[in-house]
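An instance follows:
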Amino acid sequence: MSALQPSHILFFFTLLMGTITTFSASSWFTAWIGLELNLLSFIPLLATSKSNQYTSESSLKYFLIQALGSALILASAPLSLQTQTMTMIVITLALLLKMGAAPFHFWFPPIVQGITWPQCIMISTIQKIAPMLLLSMSQTNTTSHILMIASLSSAVVGAIGGLNQTLTRKILAYSSINHMAWMLAAIMFNEQMWTIYFLTYTVVSSSVMLILHSYQIFHFNQLSSFNMYSKSLTLALFLALLSLGGLPPLTGFFPKWLIIQQFVLSESIVWLSVLLVSALLTLFFYLRIAISSMVFGAPKMKMSMISSPSSILLSVTLINFSPILYPFLGLFLY
C-alpha cells in the first residue's frame, strides 16, 4: 500500500469542494461543474494507487461511466426547449448511472474489485452524495416513478448479486447497491430521513471496510485465519456486519426502522416487502463472512501473528453497539 502523498490530500479536498459546489448550486450548470470537479479529483486518487494490476482499468472504467453520465446531463439541456418532463427524465437516469443504482449498476462491482479499501469507502459514500442531493431536489411525478423502479431493482440486484460471491469487495459493492434502494426510498419521503440513513450507512460500512483493510482481507479463504488475530477483532467484525445488515438493536437498524414507519403510514406495503426480503438476503451473506471469520480456523498456524489495533476495535464496537446515542442525531437534522 502506497504512503499518503501531498497530492492525495489536495485531490481529496478538491473532491469535497466539488460535492459542496453541487450542494450549494443555484442552477443545473453550476451543479454540473461540481460533478465534474468531483470526478476530476477522484480519478487521480484512483490512478495513483498501484495496489494491483486492475487499478488503471478501474480508473478508466470509472472515468468513462461518469463522463457518459455528465454528457447525458448536458444533452438534456436542449430538451428543455421542448418539454420539461423529458429533461427531468434524462437527468434522473444520468444521476442514477453516476451513483451506480440498478439497473445501471453493472460498472460498480468490477470497479470496486480493482481498487483499495480506502477507495472503496470513498466510492461507496462520498461519491454518492452529489447525485443523491440532485435527485432529492429534482423530484416530479414522473421521476418519482423512475426512483421507485430504481429502488426496487436495486434491492433485488443487491440482494441476489451478493449471494454467490466469494470476494469481499464485491460483496460490499452489492451491499452498497442494496442500501441504495433504501436511500432512494428515503429520498421519496424527505431529505432528513435520507440524511440519517446515509450518515448511518457511512459510519457502519466504513467500520467494516476499515477492519478488512487493516488485515487486507479480500477473499473468503483469508477469513479462515482471521479468528487467530484476536477474539475482540472477530467480535468487532461480527457486530459491524450485523449492524450493516440492519439487525436490531444495533445502529444500522434504526434508519431502516424510520423508513419502515413511513412506508406503513403511506401504505406502500408491496415496495416495503421487497426491501425487507432483500434486507434478509443481504443479512445472509453478511453472516457468511462473520461465521467464516469465527468458525473456520487453521490451528497449526502460529498464534503470534498481528496484534489488533485496539483503538480501531474499540471505536468500531462502540459505533455499532451504541444505538442509545442514535436518537440524539435527530436533534441536529430536524
